[in-house]
Design brief:
50% helix
């Protein structure tokens, strides 16, 4: 038996095939996450988990590309035109800079829980096995003969948190004030021979190039250093007090509206707060916000006294103008060396 298809039928079939191809194309979504240095391993695993989740929920295949570097440099790249759908940066100031540039909306802090910071971290020390220089607290870092490896607070989120943690420690001492804090931070950076561009570059200088006696590091990067290079070679030292670091995230409004990726980009960030997202963060040594997940990983994170950024520095605009702007305190300290 022979079947004959009319010309109209052929056209209809071809139209259906074209529509099907179009729908298949629409089912593939690409995102770019512009992040800071120490998140590489975390987001590599998280991206795969989110892709599975989104395909089961929305029946779309998602591919997430990553870009990493010093947090400040990454923010500047987005301001200058790098088309990030989302940013997951190291400090709130960098998102404020994106807001001022018109890249993200003014309400970015309230679109997600916890001021849009889905996990936290802090600043700790990594020393060589046996701690030959006897580094136990911040005061030990300013002793003569102690070589510190740290990143540049002008371009690195980790570098900025390090500076703020050192300043806050000095302020917290009996009789501490801005004058004594400035003196302490001056002596601190006198012991830093080279300022690296980002947290991962500092880890490379310390662990691979063998420079320095102590690495000042994000907590998660400190754990990764031991994992990657050997717990038989390095130890983590928790100081008496450090700063609560809250790395924020946001969709980049001007890009997601251009790319038509707002729904999936928003879901990508929301999933960071899910039990799976929180567990992956904790697995990669970020402190989770979810209480249940935090209890599961409680043995992993030693207790440490933390002060908040706002308690010492009020807000990022004020902190930047006093400490990190051109010719501000940090520039004055470095130029004297």
């Amino acid at each position: 038996m022979k079947f004959r298809i009319s010309r109209q039928g052929v056209v209809a079939v071809m139209s259906l095939l074209a529509l099907s191809a179009s729908l298949c194309t629409l089912a593939d979504v690409n995102l770019l996450n512009v992040s800071y240095d120490p998140t590489r391993e975390f987001y590599k695993e998280y991206n795969q988990a989110f892709a599975r989740y989104w395909q089961s929920k929305a029946h779309e295949r998602v591919t997430v590309q990553q870009s990493h570097g010093g947090s400040g440099k990454q923010a500047r790249s987005v301001i200058d035109g790098l088309e990030a759908d989302v940013v997951t940066l190291g400090i709130g100031y960098d998102l404020e800079a994106l807001q001022k540039a018109g890249a993200i909306a003014p309400d970015w802090r309230t679109r997600l829980p916890n001021n849009a910071a889905p996990y936290t971290s802090t600043i700790v020390f990594v020393v060589r096995k046996g701690n030959p220089k006897g580094v136990r607290d911040w005061a030990d870092l300013v002793k003569p003969g102690v070589s510190i490896i740290a990143s540049n607070p002008k371009v690195s989120g980790g570098g900025r948190w390090t500076y703020l943690a050192a300043w806050g420690y000095a302020r917290s001492l009996p009789g501490g004030n801005d004058t004594t804090a400035r003196d302490f931070v001056t002596r601190f950076y006198r012991n830093v021979p080279v300022l690296d561009s980002g947290a991962r570059a500092s880890t490379t200088s310390f662990a691979q190039r063998g420079l320095g006696d102590v690495l000042i590091s994000w907590e998660n990067e400190a754990f990764l250093t031991l994992k990657a290079f050997g717990s038989d070679k390095y130890d983590i030292v928790y100081p008496s007090v450090s700063i609560l670091a809250e790395p924020p995230v946001s969709v980049v409004d001007r890009v997601v509206d251009k790319h038509h990726t707002r729904p999936v980009a928003t879901a990508y960030l929301q999933y960071l707060y899910s039990p799976e997202g929180q567990a992956i963060a904790a697995k990669h040594f970020y402190r989770p916000r979810d209480p249940k997940v935090a209890r599961t990983f409680s043995k992993q994170f030693p207790p440490i006294k933390l002060f908040t950024f706002e308690k010492i520095f009020t807000n990022w605009e004020k902190a930047n103008s006093i400490h990190f702007a051109d010719k501000a305190i940090f520039d004055q300290i470095v130029r004297r060396h």
